[in-house]
Design goal:
The structure is a homodimer. Chain A is an alpha+beta fold. Chain A has seven helices and nine strands, in the order ββββαββαβαααααββ. The radius of gyration of chain A is 22 Å and the shape is elongated. At the A-B interface, strand 1, strand 4, helix 1, strand 5 and strand 6 of A face strand 1, strand 4, helix 1, strand 5 and strand 6 of B. The structure holds a DNA duplex.
Amino acid sequence: MGTKTRGGRAPEGYDPSKFPAFAVTVDVVILTMADSRLHLLLVRRGVAPFKGMWAIPGGFKRPTETLGEAAKRELAQETGVDSAAMLTQFGAYGDPGRDPRMNVVTVAYLAVLRDVGAVVAGSDAADAALVPVSEALDGTIELAFDHAKIVRDAVERVRGDLDLTGIAAAFVGPTFTLAELRTVFEAVWGVQLDGANFRRSVVTEEGWVIPTGRRARPGAPGGKPAELFRAGRMWKYSSPIRRSQPNERRKGNS
Amino acid sequence: MGTKTRGGRAPEGYDPSKFPAFAVTVDVVILTMADSRLHLLLVRRGVAPFKGMWAIPGGFKRPTETLGEAAKRELAQETGVDSAAMLTQFGAYGDPGRDPRMNVVTVAYLAVLRDVGAVVAGSDAADAALVPVSEALDGTIELAFDHAKIVRDAVERVRGDLDLTGIAAAFVGPTFTLAELRTVFEAVWGVQLDGANFRRSVVTEEGWVIPTGRRARPGAPGGKPAELFRAGRMWKYSSPIRRSQPNERRKGNS
DNA sequence: CCAAAAGTGTTATGTCTACACCCATGA
DNA sequence: TCATGGGTGTAGACATAACACTTTTGG
């Protein structure tokens, strides 16, 4: 950050000790899988503005905590989940007038959880709900503030990160079948994936999934018991232009 | 954003009208190519704290402008570049104590330009400099505040975005040779790329570069004149797990 | 003519897709 | 034993990396 710089040239009109005051909030987009679809945790606002409208959970940052700690605190308050849940900062929003009361800049985090369903069911159903993201994206559910845009950005982030980071594993349990993991990819990307090829991609690629010896029990209709895996380091860097590591360093060609 | 929500349950200890006040600043990491290496524009701080130390340009956000507008304004102030330069928000930083004077949250932007060299040379050389990013990353140049981390994050962002967005084109002129473009990839990724294969990747992939009929004049040592291209829409979504669009929708396999 | 850089051809190797087929289970 | 999903095999299509070769310039 830092006040205006550049020596004495071009004074900025800002005295470092007289800066415009902002409220800083942290909002958390909480995503989870339910019913094979991507869902979003929303809370109903109890106070003006936008009273009674759905919004993503959030609150003021405290001067004594980091942004990440604030996000973790909000997540724990809303869901009771205290763990090292996957929390990713993905954007800051500060348009003038986005909050009619005052100047607010919000820093948005993405949290990926499993089993939020139980959490929501356990809390007061009137003011917290798990809704399909599609309904938030297409406007079926109207959101307070600029939260519609924030949710759009969050979903875009998940789509892009899914195959580059281990974020997919956060949607499923500590151990999971490849069918479960595949469902995450299918829901987030909105496509159908071939189970056979998906398995090969994911088990071939180093560091994605680690087989536990165990197998899951099949569901009602039977079927071969699926292998159970746990998450690996999951890291992958794909790219249209391949990096080459030739024997001799080459420049250009010829 | 939004005050604490969730009906009347669990009052937060925060009155919406009595929020902690923060200064919000916008910092811009300005990257450019020089001497076939990735460079970074730094300014020397003229005021405490960190007086005399190098820092990335930045300044207070005004309540009447968006974060993006603030970044654009800072960029223009520092470089004179007013154009629709590639400006990407990539992070927010708000650790307590990151600014010893007050509570500051900064939103960081990445700007990619060409020809910053001329701009820097034109200004007072004592308080602005173009330095290789490697020197900022390895600590050869010590930066004020948490700017070292901000620069690291910016470079990481460019590395990831290079082949997914059109950001590479922002490093070169409105028209460019493929050798110039390749130099960007090589500098940012720190690799050597085969010129022949690079050309194929980039001209085959739809929407990356568009041939102008013209050719560049070869340099001193001669060589065939290179074709001049301009940037296309440049978009690409690569992924380790392929999306398939089968004739019939399939689920799983069998 | 020579060196240097741009651009094209070529080939072995690897990866991906689609789908056939086998396996293990519940009912 | 039948339906259902899990898991393996595989052939053709396609993409990639490495490098030989041709083209076009400056000196």
